[in-house]
Specification:
By secondary structure, this protein is mostly beta strands. It is about 5% helix and about 40% strand.
C-alpha cells in the first residue's frame, strides 16, 4: 500500500483475526486471507464512515487496527481534524466490522474527543468492557489522555458514547492494554502503561 495522505512515518499497523489479516498504512487499509490472497485492495479509511460529517471526508492518518477476539470483529481507528490540525475540535473515527470478515459491512463512529487539544498518536486496546484509547493530548505540551468507547453499543451498531480522562504526566504517552488470551475476571480494569 502507498502512503495515501503523504504523512510520514507511514504508521503501519496490522491485526490478525480468525481467517484474515488487516493492515493499515496512514490513510488506507487492506485485507488478506491467512493464505495470502488479498480480499480488500488498498482502500481509504474514510470509506468506513459514510454519512459522518468529518470522518467520512477526512483521511488524517495515525491509524490503528485491532482484533476483538471475544466478538470476532476488527476495529479500525484514525483521527480527524479540519485545517492544519491547530484548530479544534478533533475527532476519533472508529469503525467496527459487523462480522469477523473484513470484506463485509462496518459500523463507523465519529467521536468528538477533544474540543481544545489535538489527539495525536492514538492507540487502541480491546478489553471486555470497552475499547480503550490513549493519545498525546495536545502534543507537545498537553496532558495525557485516556478514553473508553462503549464497546457493547458499537458491537450492536447502536449510537455509542465515550468517557475521557486527562491524567497528569510525567509520561509522554500511555498505552492501553490489549487483551489477547482468556478474559479476565468480570470487573477487572483495563491497565494503561
Amino acid at each position: 500500500m502507498d502512503n495515501q495522505c503523504g504523512c510520514y512515518p507511514p504508521d503501519t499497523n496490522g491485526a490478525a483475526g480468525q481467517n484474515h489479516y488487516v493492515q493499515v498504512v496512514n490513510a488506507q487499509f487492506a485485507a488478506w486471507t491467512k493464505t495470502g490472497t488479498q480480499v480488500v485492495p488498498p482502500t481509504t479509511i474514510n470509506t468506513l464512515f459514510p454519512g459522518t460529517p468529518h470522518c467520512g471526508s477526512l483521511n488524517r492518518g495515525d491509524p490503528v487496527v485491532v482484533y476483538d477476539q471475544f466478538a470476532q470483529r476488527f476495529v479500525i481507528s484514525q483521527f480527524a481534524f479540519t485545517g492544519g490540525g491547530s484548530t479544534p475540535p478533533y475527532w476519533e473515527c472508529t469503525a467496527v466490522s459487523t462480522t469477523s470478515d473484513p470484506t463485509g459491512s462496518w459500523c463507523g463512529y465519529e467521536f468528538e474527543v477533544h474540543q481544545t487539544k489535538f489527539n495525536d498518536y492514538p492507540k487502541i486496546g480491546v478489553w471486555p468492557d470497552g475499547y480503550y484509547m490513549s493519545s498525546q493530548r495536545g502534543f507537545s505540551g498537553g496532558s495525557l489522555n485516556a478514553v473508553v468507547f462503549d464497546r457493547t453499543q458499537m458491537l450492536a451498531g447502536n449510537p455509542a458514547t465515550f468517557q475521557a480522562f486527562n491524567p497528569a504526566g510525567p509520561a509522554l504517552i500511555l498505552l492501553p492494554s490489549d487483551l489477547d488470551g482468556p478474559a479476565p475476571p468480570a470487573g477487572t480494569p483495563n491497565f494503561f502503561a
